[in-house]
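Schema walk-through. Below, the input block comes first and the output block second. Nothing else is stored per chain. Lengths vary across the set, and this one has 231 residues.
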Amino acid sequence: MALYLEVIQGDNIGSKYLILNGFRLGRTTGDILIPDKKISSLHAQVEKESTGNLALVDLGSSNGILINGQKVKRVGLIPGVSFQVGRTFLKVIEIDQLSPEGMRLSSRWVDVLAREVPNLLAQNAENPTPVKAFTPAITLSFIEGPQTDKVVYLGFGPRRFGADVLDVELECPESPGLAFEIIPDQDGVRFQSYEKEVVQLNGQPVDSALLVDGDIIGVGLTRIKVRLRND
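--- output ---
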């Protein structure tokens, strides 16, 4: 017998996810991936307790884990237990891995890997664009959102930002996998959005624009102030 999380309410109702010690749950990062915008990119992790039972432990996510509407730090993964992450309600169930359903789930997991791994590799592949210095150099200050007070200095580019890129990770739950890119341009510094419904420049959806000092990049609830440094 093996433990699974079953979606009992949410966009992917009926979906089942295998639970193993060390597995991480998130929207874009981890072993259990649930496409719910209210789930953090990396939300929680399965850990073994001193009793030998497994528990799901919150990793400092924005919306936490809820049981009956109450936020908790951890929830015991015992068959029959139900809880909420983001807008998704999950129930712990037990399935015989040798049963037809267990075999079907294993096949589905292989299918998911075959589909998603190439996408992640493509997103995180080295950008073939030659690396150039930013003139002037750039300071990005996170002034609102989960990463408030974080400062990023950019001397060379292009630089990529998003929930599951290897360059600058955005921790806001609303962030796309690849949100935007900042690119050295012959005319200055260029901002390139990849999800203009979520990513905005000075409150407006923009595909591409030259950045000026004081611009504000918005991704969901995150606000990033641009400073062009001539020193």
